[in-house]
Design brief:
By secondary structure, the protein is an all-beta fold.
């Protein structure tokens, strides 16, 4: 759990405090996602439009590094997903209605930023990995603009964009893959859309 300047670890069985992983002087502001990668915990946080990715050593609680700055193009990052050794971060706001930042989790190096009209991003707010592909749920800032973008993880090339008109998406906030099916939670529509992977 984010506490403004760190992450609190609690024992699942007893509820006892294990430790607080501190960010030092840097504030997490709003914690939006966490992912465990090997021995480390990555915590995503955003302030007023910008964002940072904090990496902690799970066993010691030590802050390993903070990834931030213009090169990552974080812009109100809302979600993360791990594919292989790379972390994908969904940025809800950018100059092109959203983007996805790909980072090497081992080195912290920027791999690429996916953005542009070919992805049809529109406030991306949820990510899931389905085999070789990354699924991006776009909340849509206008009614009728919600969608799911499917991207080839290896190349970063869009595979297809599934539209609200055909799938009933309505401000999708979360998605999960189960076997060959994808489930999308629609916030505004108070519904769940299920569709098969291609």
């Amino acid at each position: 759990m984010g506490n403004g300047s760190g992450v609190t670890e609690v024992d699942i069985q007893t509820g006892a405090l294990v430790k607080i992983m501190s960010t030092g002087q840097q504030s997490l502001s709003v914690t939006t996602a966490m992912v465990v990668v090997g021995p480390d915990l990555f915590v995503l946080g955003h302030g007023l439009g910008s964002g940072s990715l904090f990496e902690f050593d799970c066993s010691t609680g030590r802050l390993v590094r903070v990834l931030t700055g213009a090169k990552y193009r974080f812009s109100q990052p809302d979600a993360m997903a791990l594919a292989g050794s790379d972390l994908f971060v969904a940025n809800a706001i950018s100059s092109s209605d959203g983007s996805v930042t790909e980072i090497n989790s081992s080195t912290g190096a920027l791999v690429r930023v996916l953005m542009g009209s070919q992805y049809q991003f529109n406030w991306p707010g949820a990510l899931a990995v389905a085999g070789p592909d990354l699924l991006v749920a776009n909340q849509g800032i206008d009614r009728g603009a919600a969608s799911v973008t499917e991207i080839d993880v290896a190349t970063g090339v869009p595979v297809r964009v599934l539209s609200q008109a055909n799938y009933g998406f309505d401000a999708p906030q979360a998605l999960v893959v189960n076997g060959q099916d994808v489930f999308v939670a629609n916030y505004a529509g108070a519904s769940v859309t299920e569709f098969p992977l291609s």
